[in-house]
Amino acid sequence: MIYLTGELVEKYKNGERELSLDLGRNVTMVTHELDGLPLDEVRGDFVYAWDGKELWKVAVFDDGLYRLRMMKGKPILEIDGLRMHLVKDFKDVFDYSKLVVRALRIRQSDVVLDTCMGLGYTAIAASKKADKVTAIELSPAVLAMAKWNPWSRELFERKRIEVIGEKDCFDYIKDAPGGKFTKIIHDPPRFSKAGDLYSRKFYTELRRVCKEGALMFHYVGSLGKKKRNIMGEVAARLEECGWKVMKKDERLQGILAKAV
What we know:
It is a single chain. The longest helix has 10 residues, at 95-104. The protein has helices spanning 6-13, 95-104, 121-127, 140-148, 153-157, 169-175, 200-208, 230-239, and strands at 2-4, 18-19, 28-29, 48-50, 55-57, 59-61, 65-71, 74-79, 82-83, 111-114, 132-137, 161-165, 181-186, 210-219, 243-249, 254-259. Helices cover 25% and strands 29% of the residues. The protein folds into 2 domains: 2-83, no CATH class; 95-259, Rossmann fold (3-Layer(aba) Sandwich), CATH 3.40.50.150. With 260 residues, the protein is of the alpha/beta class. α2 (95-104) packs across α3 (121-127).
């Protein structure tokens, strides 16, 4: 598979040949790989893929437009124009995931649950240290983006990662045994889209499937000082459901909590 962007095509047309054809994972000397490809059809800031026969946008419509978009040299997931990654205050797209893993103090003995996988960058970062990572993704459109994304390849290749696709994470944890996990990555859609994933019932179930002393990083997001204080509401709700709030991290826009 060859991946193309408007920026890459422009460089190629200007004579550059040391380029990446897999969205930045590897840089190679391009010789005849792009001969005969309809490069003029690569437009805007979409990511395109060439499968040897057809050029197509790496995007799908489901309940909105899901697509890969390049940001700081790496692909992120965008839904209806909204970025699904914190990138503004980070030099690298992967910095957020690395900092979450560091905050959770993930070790070789840990069994990790990633409730809302997305492109899986945080699950992949966690798998480099943990014994096992279970990553859940409900949306078939998001799963498609992950399968097409070269940077998500480890999700489907690493033995330490189990991907559970097209399943609601709430349904999954209701069936999971108690005390199974030692670390939780909870990065849900915004409150208006998935209010049940911010509920007391859900937090109580998360606590049940965790061992005592387990840590959870819960992404909350930022609505601005003049709007609703979701961070404060989430912190109070967690405290009611068997969690002790350890830190409110403004940079990562989330809460670190401990199962007590």
